[in-house]
Amino acid sequence: MEHTSLLERILRGIALTLVVIFFMFPIVWIFMMSFQTNETILRIPPQLIFEPTLANYTALITGKLMTAAGTLDIAFMRNLGNSVFLSVTSVAVSLLLGVPAAYAFARHKFRGSEDIAFTLLSFKFAPALLVLLPLTLYFQKLGLANTYIGLIWVYQLICLPLILWIVRGYFEDIPADIEYAYRIGGHSWFATFRKIALPLAGPGIAAAGLLAFIFAWNNFVFALVLASADKQPVTVGALAFITSSGIQYGQISAAIVLSITPTLALALYAQRYLVEGLSLGAVKG
Amino acid sequence: MSQSALTISGVDKFYGPIDRGVHAVKNLTMEIGKGEIVALLGSSGCGKTSTLRMIAGFEEVSRGAISVGGRQVHTLPPVKRNVAMAFEGYSLYPPLTVRENMAFALKAARLPKSEVDAKVASIAKLLEIEDILERYPSSISGGQQQRASLGRALIREADLHLLDEPMGQLEPQLRAVLRGRIKHFIKERGLTAILVTHDQTEANALADRIAVMEGGVLQQFDTPDRIKERPANLFTGTFVGEPPMNVFEAYVATAAGRINLKLPDGLSLDYDKDAFSAPVRDQLLSRERVVIGIRPYAVRRSKEGVPARVSANQWLGDQTHIAADFAGGSLVLVEHDRTRLDLGAPINVSIDPKNLHVFDQASGKAISHGMELA
């Protein structure tokens, strides 16, 4: 049992509260805004008490945006669908390519392996806009502009290095002798990878996949440049709320709430799994 | 030992590029018979584990060949070599219980469940791990993990059993008991085992033959007795034996029909010429400088001997270790009775020529052991 003085506990409580308020405030505020109309949001001074309305959510789900200037069609639900499809597919492709690659980099030191691994990481160094200009030209020539395949391909720039480097670290942490013990027991290299390395690195792979998913989900600039309206994810789709008759804060808030829900849910679910995975083997003090 | 279980011929191991990288094992050649237990003995970094891992197939052989049961294996993957191994770091599978870990090793052999259970039970009894069979590796002690790992290797029927420091983590009492049982187990089943260890007691107790390695070079490969009585060189002489052999440089001189081995500090061991056998005497006289080695058990205190001064005196419960300042160095002698000698007390020591090991001063190669040439 840790011994702490009363003062220490009070100070710690205050510090924790401050941190939580600091990080939670924007999210809570957005959540509240999503149930208000533009008029109540823009009221000065802002008020905590208001009459909640579901109009923003209705507008998003039906795709009809009522503005002072008339009714606008918005494709928010489609954008949300695009986001889910693009992120899930990108992460799946990245895992399929990245996990075996990470294993190779972790276990087999071949000539130039460090250089290749570093090159892959360096994809993340380049500013996205710098990459985008030549990429746009290539993609137009190749017929990949404004296609899901093209977007998923470009999303590999985000997901693949992340997964590769995180998972590689997890593979390196598994003592090679555990795999050797399995191989010498009469099992092939591939069976060892599948039955020993993959399960042991499971929590790491899940963590990397989750992170990659969040990064892919939050990506804005690749989709903005390379996709037109019907292929755009929510991040780009949210621009539609900046209309000629003003910025639709209520709908933007509702859109944000809807778009962070999947990642939040995933994170909460995976967190439980991650903690479970990481605490395995930590039973002994 | 009619058939060879393992043949290592001219094996080199380089970490890094061949001829330029770290030369961990140098031109190693040895042959191990079927049913033999061989210990690879040496200090850390001597190449013993590299050798074991090359046999298992986890390290590539840079040069040379390895055959198991007459079959060349050094280019095969580990799965095709039919060897079993207990790892120094245990390497149990964390998500499996001890029982599953051991049974797992038999999985590839596709045995019926009842047979697997019986084998696990008998090995668990042998290693005294019956009560932890249902536990996970993370919840048992290092010694228990080590026994589980050893069990996982012994349970298999392989051409060769490789044991890397198999008992390093065990308590001394248990170690002594298990040594006997494991040796019996291996011999009873006619298994061939190679064990890597830096513990010479373990090597002596378990092995039929010991391969002493140092600096990647095989120094001597012989029975424990012969390694102790006839060390091939200065390294083996000083490495094997507890407490270690006393070693002094000596000048060979003759005067009035006697052979003087002149030590530093003006001391000299004087022997009658006839105290040595003719070939040993000839060898001694043909040289100017030699290195002499004396086992601590062979040093006697006597009235007429060479003077020394006690610098430490330890009673270990069954024997006394006395260290003395002697000839510019330190001399250790062992006596079986409790000896009361104060620090700084003068003593005289004598050494029977029958117990004298003589080594070449330059190469360290053994010249003679007692009355016989090496």
Automatic annotation (TrEMBL), chain A:
How is it placed in the membrane, per its record? Multi-pass membrane protein
Q: Which InterPro entries match?
A: BP-dep_ABC_trans_perm, MetI-like, MetI-like_sf
Gene3D superfamilies recorded = MetI-like (1.10.3720.10)
Q: Where in the cell is it found?
A: Cell membrane
Q: Does the keyword Amino-acid biosynthesis apply?
A: no
What's in the GO CC field?
plasma membrane
The record's section on SUPFAM superfamilies has: MetI-like
* Residue ranges crossing the lipid bilayer per the database entry: 12-33, 54-77, 83-106, 118-139, 145-167, 204-229, 249-270
State if Iron is listed as a keyword: no
The Gene Ontology biological process annotation of the record reads:
transmembrane transport
Matching entries from PROSITE patterns are given as: ABC_TM1
Family statement: Belongs to the binding-protein-dependent transport system permease family.
Instruction: Return the protein name.
Output: Carbohydrate ABC transporter permease
Automatic annotation (TrEMBL), chain B:
Pfam short name (any one)? ABC_tran
Q: Where in the cell is it found?
A: Cell inner membrane
Is Transport among this UniProt entry's keywords?
yes
Specify whether ATP-binding is a keyword of the entry. yes
This protein's GO cellular component annotations are: ATP-binding cassette (ABC) transporter complex, substrate-binding subunit-containing
Membrane topology for this entry?
A: Peripheral membrane protein
Signal peptide range in chain numbering? none
State the superkingdom.
Bacteria
Going by the UniProt record, its keywords in alphabetical order are: ATP-binding, Cell membrane, Membrane, Nucleotide-binding, Transport
Q: Which PANTHER family match?
A: MALTODEXTRIN IMPORT ATP-BINDING PROTEIN MSMX, OSMOPROTECTIVE COMPOUNDS UPTAKE ATP-BINDING PROTEIN GGTA
Q: What family does this chain come from, according to its entry?
A: Belongs to the ABC transporter superfamily.
User: What is the protein's given name?
Assistant: ABC transporter ATP-binding protein
State the organism of origin. Mesorhizobium jarvisii
Which taxonomic lineage does the organism of this UniProt entry have?
Bacteria, Pseudomonadati, Pseudomonadota, Alphaproteobacteria, Hyphomicrobiales
